[in-house]
Structure formats: C-alpha cells, structure tokens
Amino acid sequence: MKLRDIAHSRSGDKGNISNISVIAFDETDYPFLAEHVTAARVAAHFDGIVTGTVTRYELPALGALNFVLTGALGGGVTRSLALDAHGKGMSSALLDLELPDLELPAPDRHPNNQNGGERP
Amino acid sequence: MHSIRIGSGAGYSGDRIEPAIELAERGGLDYLVFECLAERTIALAQQVRRRDPDGGYDPLLATRMGAVLGPCRRNGVRIVTNMGAANPLAAAAATRAVARSLGLDGLRIAAVTGDDVLEAARAADVALEEGGTLRSLGDRVLSANAYIGAFPIAEALAAGADVVITGRAADPALFLGPMVHAFGWAADDWDALGRGTMAGHLLECAGQVTGGYFADPGVKDVPGLARLGFPIGEVSADGELLVTKLPGTGGLVSAATVKEQLLYEIHDPARYYQPDVVADFSGVRVEEAGPDRVRVRGGRGAARTGLLKTSIGYVDSCIGEGQISYAGPGAVERGRLALDIVRDRLALTGVRASEMQFDLIGLDALHGDRLSRGHAPYEVRLRVAGRTVTLEEAARIGNEVETLYTNGPAGGGGAWKSAREIVAVASALLPESAVRPIVTLLEA
C-alpha cells in the first residue's frame, strides 16, 4: 500500500528548506504512520534530491507528522534553476512511499469512501 | 467585543478578485485582509521605486481597492493589506485617489512605514543565514526590509483608519493587528498572541484553507474550484477560531483542509517565530462543527525573541532557459539526444555557467528519474536552465535549445526561451530596537 492510501500531505517552502506534512485521514492511523514514516525513510525516499537533513516533528493531537528537509530547493526558491522552485510537488512525491499493508481493511477510514475512492 | 469576523481577500499578489468582492458584500465582516507581498516582491518593488518615486507598491492595488472600497464602506468593513510593498505612502495616496473617484469622502487611510531597514542593516553589517554578511553582497544589495508585527497595525486602527496599508509585515500580523485592536490584547499576553497568530496563519493564504491547493481527484475531491470561496475567520476574545466560508461559493472547509494549512510552511510547530510572539501549534485540535465550519483550539504562545527577521533583496545572477517538446515513439530517446547536443554545444561555444540543469519534463524534471522509475511517457519536454553572470551569456543557453528546431533530432516542436536577471532574497535578524514603525493617516 502507498502512503497516499491513509494520509494526505502538503508541502511548503522557506528559502532552501521544504516542509512536508503527512496527515492521517483517520487519526487512529497515527501510530502506524509514526512507526513507519520515519525521518530515515523520508530521507531515503528523497535521496539525491535533498542534500541536507530530514527532521521529523510529531503532532499526535492532529494525527500528523511534519518533515523539514534542508537543502531541498536547489539553493533557495528565489534563485533555484528547478522547474518547481517552490517544491510544491514534494508532497505528491512523498505520498508514493510504499508502506506495509494495514491488517484491517478499514472501509470507513477513507473520507471519500462514499465517492468511490479506492481502498487497498 | 465578543468576537470578530475577518475575511481573507487575497493569498498572493496576483490572486483572484471576485472572492474578495463577495466577502466585502455579504461576508458580514469586520475586517478584510489582503496578503499580497511575497519575499522577493519587495526587492523588485524597490527597483521600481528607484525609477519612479511614486511607484513601488502592488500593481493591482487600484484594481483591488476599486473593487472593494465601496462595499466595505457600506458594510463597515475595515481593510488591512501589505500592498504598500516598497512604498506604503504612495499606496495610501493612490488608495485615496480611488476613494475620491468613488465619492467615498472622509475615508481614512493609514500607511505603516519603518520596515525599510537598509541603513540599519548596512550599519550593523548583519550576518546572513545563507552565510557571509551583508557587506559580502557588495553593491548588489537592493533592499532590506524587517518583518514588522501587529501592534503598529492595531495603532493605525485605533487612530480610526478604515484602510491600513503596510510594507513588509509578518503575514499573520495582518490578521493579528485587528485582533489586538478589537480585544485589547497586551503585548505580553503570549497565549492570546499565539492563538491569534495561528488564526492569521490559517487565513493568510486565502483559498488554501478553503479547498485550494488540496484537491486530488478520487482521494480528496473539492467541489467548485472555479468559484472557490475565500475564508472567513470568526475569532473570539480568547483567540478561539472558527474557519468558514460563504454559502454558495465553491471549495471546502474541513478538518483536513485546515490541518494541511496549519502545517503549511511550518518547521518546528512548537516554535513558529513571529515579531510579536513565538507561537506554538503543537497542541492544536481541529474539529468539524458543521458543513464548511471548522473549530480550531489549543494554540499557545511564548515570549517573543526581540529579533526581527529581515529580508535582503540582492541581484544574484542571471538564468537562461530553453524548452522544446518531443512526442510519439522514441520521444524520450530523442529528448535525451537533444540534451546531449545542447550540452556539447554549450561546451563548444564556451558558454560559462556556474550551475546547469538538464530536464525532460514528463520524466525527471521535478524529482529526478529514480522516483518516476523509467516509465515511458508519450511526450516529453526538454528543459535546459543555467546560471550565468551576464544576461548575454544567459541568452546563449536558450538559443542553443532553439537551434534544435533545425539542427536537432526529428520532430522537436514548441521551442521557447528566456533570459532573466535574478533578484534573490537572503535572510538576517535585526534587534527590534533598530526598527521604528510609523503610522501616517490620510483622508479622502
């Protein structure tokens, strides 16, 4: 299963630093996220793209994690040569992260389930 | 006053106009805030002001003011904005002219100045976060602007301003100013200032909390993005916040949209540094209180640092860029061949670039080729960008892409090129004692 199946994400920029939130659709999945979406895994996912460090902040009250990636934006938003200088797409890249399958099928977990959103 | 309603009318300088008109007309607002000043914009505005002493403020100011001053006057809505950019006084005069043309006699417009700290920053030769000091940038420095806080804005409102126009101010402070004014929060009421900052942070990007920058079809659906409604924050005297939007507008306010925006551009959520407070979002809770109504509680704050973030604009370099597309069978291979040709041409013709980027859009431009795992797209777009010292040198990069039309692989189409001077921004810290905000009031 992909991270995208249980969480959503938004990326933001400040200078040469990108932050990527990872937010559980269902707050009860937070412990699973906290166990599997570690700073080391995020750093490995962005290997070759991010030149600095990855720091993880935990927000159990929101069911969310916040990752701060230094050296992530081609030297800084205002001078980067990159097509996506702000790193707006970093969140989408992280949602591709492969996770072990959750044991529960959790049909109610997904907020868009009633709209036919696919579940693992 | 028990609570106030603050609308967010723009999340960046080019943002849509009609959502703010809807808010001014039927938002039941007390305040309408326009956040229009990105980090680099003020340096570019400073360049404009040097050529034209009456310029250097937001180019859409007259359009936005023309659209909302009338309904705001009718409905008793006061406006706060950083559209003053590098010249809040000229922006206030321009707003007065718009007000007079609309017959809004007696409208009071305040300019908040004092954020321009170039002399103080030069005198202190401030250290740059990026390394070195201000002096190391030599004569390339264009501007230095400190992020001022909420209290000068509150002061302007207390003086009776209907419209408050700042230059560089912390984005959340544009919202915190009205709260400080309405509720009389003290400058050391850290929890109240922290909660107000949280509210301002959630609202400052306008549509980003009402379903913009959020939709992901089949996973996170959002209705009506072409008619996205901008947010209204209902803030109580103790800083509790309800985020909502107008009925009949597009978009979505949900726990998920609010959580995403709460963490947007945040590093340590327990320490969000602002001019007035160090806000703490770590214990915030978000609760849906009805359709498009989300309650946010639990923000806190700690004593401010006494240091103000200062953005230093400078001429960094030039960037030359070229693009061209390939499609059909073998598109990726032809794109790769084209990249090799451009590489060789830049070397053969002696183009001096300190940094180069070679992309195939559709394959590896955003995150490298490892994450796209070698899938074969139907079409790719070559993109070559390089950093140079001069604009002439930069132009040669785009030219070497354009000449692929007649000299490169088969079927290259849609070539495009650009060469531009790059004004970049570096950051420093200045003691707040070096910054003296001044409020000037004009009347239409």
Bulk shape of chain A: elongated
State the end-to-end distance of chain A: 6 Å
Q: Determine the most extensive contact between two protein chains.
A: A-B, 48 and 55 residues
The residue fraction in helices of chain B comes out at 25-40%
Radius of gyration of chain B: 24 Å
Poorly predicted runs of 5 or more residues of chain A = 113-120
- Mean of all residue-level pLDDT scores of chain B: 97
Specify the number of helices of chain A: 3
Please tally the β strands of chain B and state the result: 18
Strand order of the largest sheet of chain B: 11-12-8-7-1-2-3-6-4-18
What fraction strand of chain A? 15-25%
Q: What pattern of helices and strands is seen along the backbone of chain A?
A: EEHHEEH
Strands of chain A, total number: 4
Layout of strands and helices, then pairs:
The complex is a heterodimer of chains A (120) and B (444).
Chain A lengths: L6 E8 L2 E8 L5 H7 L2 H7 L8 E6 L4 E6 L20 H6 L25
Antiparallel strand pairs in A: 1-2, 2-4, 3-4
Chain B lengths: L2 E8 L7 H9 L4 E4 L6 H11 L9 H15 L2 E4 L6 H14 L6 E6 L4 H7 L16 E6 L4 H8 L4 E4 L6 H11 L6 H14 L28 E5 L4 E4 L10 H8 L9 E2 L4 E3 L4 E6 L2 E5 L2 E3 L4 E21 L3 H18 L6 E7 L6 H5 L6 E10 L2 H12 L1 H4 L5 E19 L6 E6 L1
Parallel strand pairs in B: 1-2, 2-3, 3-6, 4-6
Antiparallel strand pairs in B: 1-7, 4-18, 5-14, 7-8, 8-12, 9-10, 10-13, 11-12, 14-16, 14-17, 15-16
